[in-house]
Design brief:
Layout (H helix, E strand, L loop, with lengths): L3 E7 L9 E8 L5 E9 L5 E8 L14 H23 L14 E4 L2 H8 L4 H10 L3 H11 L12
Antiparallel strand pairs: 1-2, 1-5, 2-3, 3-4
Length: 159
């Protein structure tokens, strides 16, 4: 199984900066598929939630479903989506309006999004946490390059 990662944003629910999800797929040394998900919510608590899926088989024999990279990435994205729904539910449990609102679904984004967060001093703790926790080598290598960048000194010019 080829080691891959994807990045998704989630439409803002109550934050200024977009929350994001990073999903991974790779194989353990025995060849069994693994997947990870990391959810970063740029709220006042710098919320970071993650999980890992370890498959105990290499394929779904005699099934029309193929246990491949796409399947694993879909599964871990679904788990991250559920975690975001739970976050929103827990945060707004007492608000009746929540019952009529739908929680936005993740949308795939380009990997350079993580560079923009880093350079703009957004989600720094969450990006560092992903770098520490991921076992996906391509993601580790990419995040090493990202966190080596100097954050920008931004000057706000209003006209």
């Amino acid at each position: 199984m080829k080691a891959l990662y994807k990045i998704h944003t989630i439409e803002r629910f109550d934050t200024v900066v977009l929350p994001f999800v990073v999903t991974t797929v790779f194989s353990n040394p025995g060849g069994y598929p693994k997947g990870e998900w990391f959810l970063a919510i740029p709220d006042e608590a710098s919320t970071f939630i993650g999980g890992q899926v370890n498959f105990d088989k290499r394929s779904f024999e005699e099934s029309p479903i193929k246990l491949d990279e796409e399947f694993v990435l879909d599964e871990v994205l679904g788990q991250a989506e559920n975690a975001y729904r739970q976050y929103v539910f827990d945060k707004y449990r007492d608000i009746a309006l929540l019952n009529t609102m739908s929680v936005p679904k993740p949308i795939e984004a380009e990997r350079k999004l993580l560079v923009h967060y880093w350079l703009r001093n957004k989600c720094l703790d969450q990006l560092q946490a992903i770098k520490r926790h991921t076992q996906c080598v391509p993601l580790q290598e990419y995040l090493e390059q990202v966190v080596d960048l100097e954050p920008l000194v931004l000057r706000d010019v209003r006209i």
